[in-house]
Amino acid sequence: FAITMSYIQFDKHQLTNLEFALRREVLQTNRRGAFSNTSLVCCNTRKYHGMLVCKQPNLDQDYHVLMSCMNEAIEQFDEPFNLGIQQFKGGHFFPKGLKYLREITFDATPKLRYGVGGVLFSKETLFASGNDNCMLIKYTLEEANYDARLIIRPLLAFRSVHRLSKANNDVNRSYEPIPNGINVCMYNGYTPLNIQFSKTVNYEHNPDWCNDVEYSRELERGYEGHEDLYVPGTFIVELKKGESVYCAISTDRLKQPNKTIPKYFSDESKSKIPRDSFDNWLRRAAQQFLVRNDKEIDLIAGYPWYDSRVRDAFIALPGLTLATGDTATYEAVLKTMMPRLEDVTSPSMDTPLWLFWTLQMYVKQTNTGVEVWKTYGNTLKNILDKYRDGTDNTTHMLSNGLLFGDAYGKALTWMDIVYEGRVITPRTGMPVEVNALWYNAIMFSLELATKAKDTKFVKAWSTIAQQIPQAFKDTFWSKEQGYLADCVNGDNKDFSVRSNQIIAVGLPYSPISDKIQQLVLEKTRRTLLTSRGLRTLTPDNKDYVPKYNGNVFQRDCAHHQGTVWVWPLMFFAEGYLKIYGASGIEYLKKLYQDFEPAITEYCIGTVGEIFDADPPHRPQGAESQATSVGALLWINHAIKAMTTSETLTIKKTKTKAKQ
To answer: What per-residue string of b and e applies to 20-31 under the rule 16 or more CB within 10 Å gives b?
Structure first.
């Protein structure tokens, strides 16, 4: 058959390579907090994978896998050809439908095309963005010499994403016939699941268990990796050449499914951002993190195991919204996050300070400084006062204006891994980025207060702001080393080269001189910069961990000990443009464009949480991370803004020359 051309596509040779295919994943969300997630070839490799994953508020706050997967087979003349693939205990695969897979393309939807003898069959999936949790599938018999049957066996889990299902006698084995399908609910308290088709189908109820399904990625991560899935029965669908049949897997029962499901699929396909460029893929990925619940818009930190986190939201928000001109969503998310801020003030030293930065980016985009001070001024003042006066005996301001933090057995900054009471990256004292954020927060507040004529605040905080740059330099800068200490506690200065110091360069208000900023920037570029972000520690450090793998403890020890993170690159880019101006545009363009292959290396169309410290910087952690996608969108936005500014300057210069 004719090979189609898409911006992202995979051919038979790639797909039949299990190491290649199972390491790549596909994520779809409905913008309401539900999602679908599996490997590139629809073989689940994680306990978090599932065709329909959504929250069950009647039970807990976890995500739950309702439907794990669908096993399909094409049958002609009573000869079935199994198209699915599953891994079972011991690393055995069955069925092995991978051999029939010819290509996967990503246009409006992910589309898998299978070739079985004279049959060409395709499967497209689409998560509807409506209020219901509805996964849509379009099956098409594209080419065939004779009519065929589609045989479908749904595999259900009905369990939290953090747990695994085991065969039991408590499962509800009954079902309810509904239009063109069935309604099932394995356990009390769960939302019933509806499986419906766009045409009349035959359903044979034969409840059974599919035992010892294996999740290879969980075993690699040191977790239990085997479960039993419930199979209620089998659907049989008659197909003619050229015919498409649609299936809806939903927590809401659809009326007149023969009419509504095809229209639903068509309308959803047309409403999506085109998947025709790197920029558009990132814009589309950004939407997945923005979840609308009732009147709120929340921000998910990452898929498939993170929920909403305040620090991540503040860091990711400008890139996910302001970079695309969506100020309304920015404002809505910020409104959602503000009530949660009080809960993270202690022991976290930095989370409230990120609020100042995210508001700073908003003011930069909208020129609404006075309005922001009127709306958020009291909140910002209270945060600054709390730091100055001490936060629950954890963080307090010293006489020189810098912040000091100490909380035994707790992580104080974004390097927050604690394993069995042990802080893996202890940063007690004065962390460099926290004090840079502190200075930036004060200066930004003074900027807004001055515009709003809040003289009382200006008078109270100007003296503190004036003393910080010298104190910061005396505390963190080493002329001999040529860079900033990562953390200082009394006479103990930790000069491990980490990505934290670049934040002091990239912030709008920096407590260090342009010359020191340039030296820190170059030190970071030489020792930490990779094609996938910034290392958290240099390779020459004795604590450096080159790869993020192994069991929980091994991975925790690697998390911030060399492992590459994307979001600090945003501050490297801002610092680079600050120091080198328009002459740095081409360098940063290449840095941004070099990320393009990353959206085909892990979770298709998005960027993951972290990468191995050593080349080839294999992607690790969460498949899709808000701070990573947000950082890249913001970098591209900053490049475009500088390019526009440079163009305007050139035009003005030419106009003056003519005059």
So the answer is: ebbbbbbbbbbb
